[in-house]
Amino acid sequence: MNDDTPVLEARGLVKRFPVRRTLFGRVTRAVSAVDEVDLRVAAGETLGLIGESGSGKSTAGRLVARLVRPDAGRVALLGREVGDTPADLRWLRTRVQVVLQDPFSSLDPTKTVGHAVAEPLVVHKLGNRSQREELAERMLDRVGLGASYAWRYPAELSGGQRQRVAIARGLVLAPRLLVADEPTSALDLSTRSEILNLLLELQESTGVACLLISHDFATIRHLAHRIAVLYLGKVVEAGPAERLAEDPAHPYTKAMMSAVPVPDPGGQNKRKRIALSGEIPSPIDLPSGCRFSSRCPYATDHCHSTEPEMIDLSSGHRVACHLYDPSTEADRPTTPTAP
């Protein structure tokens, strides 16, 4: 692997979950969770994956970690394409780890914290018992808990402490990619800030790449170098975090950004909130054309009939919207219209 090879490169990921089958097992209706999604994460980089509930961001994370098998597409880790063979999956598991949303349900209440952190080492048969215990205590110390926590049980810890344990377990194998799926959504505001800062410090010290999944733009902006915005399983905008935060292009991204509170009351009062109307299409019966057209104030007949392609706006900033397609300039409304 050379220096330009990304840690993660996913191309054309597709996942549909059956909801109705015939008597003989043929799928007649399915939920389209992820549709032709491309993701790329470099070493030491955080890619933020953001969208509403049901946008497909958690499914995309599970496809990357191979917790769910994709219907189509490819995943390459460190330049090596990952298949479905047991050898490929074993290789992947030592290099990709996941931190889940609920730290309590992800820990076995009958096992000590030290056992939870050392468990990946046991599964992959790394080291002897004393070496695993020593490494687990070292990881607990690294995430700010201390070695003494190894003998406690999950019920004795707060939510923030349990999430630190989950992070320690995720990093104990020294993975190259960490998939963090809503790692702070179950925590209070002050604890959330501590965990985000911890993730930032650990990434700077270890160089691990991170796929951060969240519905909270403020959380994503705090940690991510780049952002990909998902809507109904499609990436509608992607680019550098600061660029998307300061100058979002897609109407959906603009609406999400307008809902993020700012600490300055005067500035907050001057901001214009973009309220979306219209119905969210069913992922079982997706419309033709742009999936956001039923809620977009700029939608035209062309938007309802033709799906937009990703367009390059500037270096690394891409958007899937007919507003930026030169071929549709004559059809664009000059002011927002009701969806």
What does this structure look like?
By secondary structure, the chain is an alpha/beta fold. Helices cover 31% and strands 23% of the residues. The protein has helices at 57-64, 86-93, 113-123, 129-142, 159-171, 189-206, 217-223, 241-246, 251-258, 265-270, 301-305; strands at residues 8-21, 27-41, 46-50, 72-77, 80-81, 96-99, 177-181, 209-214, 226-231, 234-240, 310-314, 317-320. The chain has an 8-stranded mixed β-sheet with strand order 6-7-8-3-9-10-12-11, sandwiched between helices. The chain has a 4-stranded antiparallel β-sheet with strand order 2-1-4-5. Strand 1 (8-21) and strand 2 (27-41) form a beta hairpin.
List keywords for this structure.
339 residues; 11 helices; 4-stranded antiparallel sheet; alpha/beta; 12 strands; 8-stranded mixed sheet; 31% helix
